[in-house]
Structure prediction request, 261 residues.
Amino acid sequence: MKILLVDDEPVALEAMTRNLRKVLGEEALILTAENGQDALNLLKKTSVSVVFMDIVMPGMNGLDAARTIKKLYPTTNVIICTAHEHYAFRAWDLFISGYLLKPVSVERLKTALDHLRTPVVERLTVNCFGSFEVFFRGDVVTFPRRGAKELFAYLVNCCGKGVSSGELCDVLRDEPVNPELKKASVRKYVMALRKTFSGLGLDDVVCHTRDNYYVNTKRLDCDLYRFLEGDDSARKLYAGEFMTQYSWAENTIGILENMAM
Prediction:
């Protein structure tokens, strides 16, 4: 789980980080920001599951930041964490996921995380702009075979549309010419992908129906998908480069260029 803590007091950030580690374990990825604007700038670059937001901070206060976050990222859980009780009514009007009074105990943190407004679904972070890379909980996902990574990249490029094994064979140009051997390579790479993602606790990333393969887009936080949905932050990330490792990706660049105009 990736969490963002927003507070202008270093001591408060340290205490919250320490308590969250007790609740979630050391594998949780915890980011920090000192005010509302810094939090928004960070969210343009990465997605998080939960934001713990202080209210009284220099610059943009927590309520204004929470309002903007819920508008731009409606599935992101925002939990207000403050020493002031009297902001509660205004905060709940923003459809936040919780309101905690400082100091926050481990027990109260656990209760808040157990009752989030939007249940947390673990997702892969997929970067298509520039070179194609995949991350999970902040770490690079290592693929056992180069062909498996390329096959996954192509499925991501197809945005959840079913792709036949024959089409995937055409993508894997470095494989044997023999059609049956190519199909065997596709099956081998799909099995490798499923094993890799299953090891991360994600069993439904690559799906199969009859002769078609596709990605479960709900399991991906992907810059390409956010770009296609009109996300301004994703549009700013695009600089004319897309999956630079793969020659077939040039076909998508034309579509992106037209949309970026």
About this structure: The first strand starts at residue 2 and ends at 6.
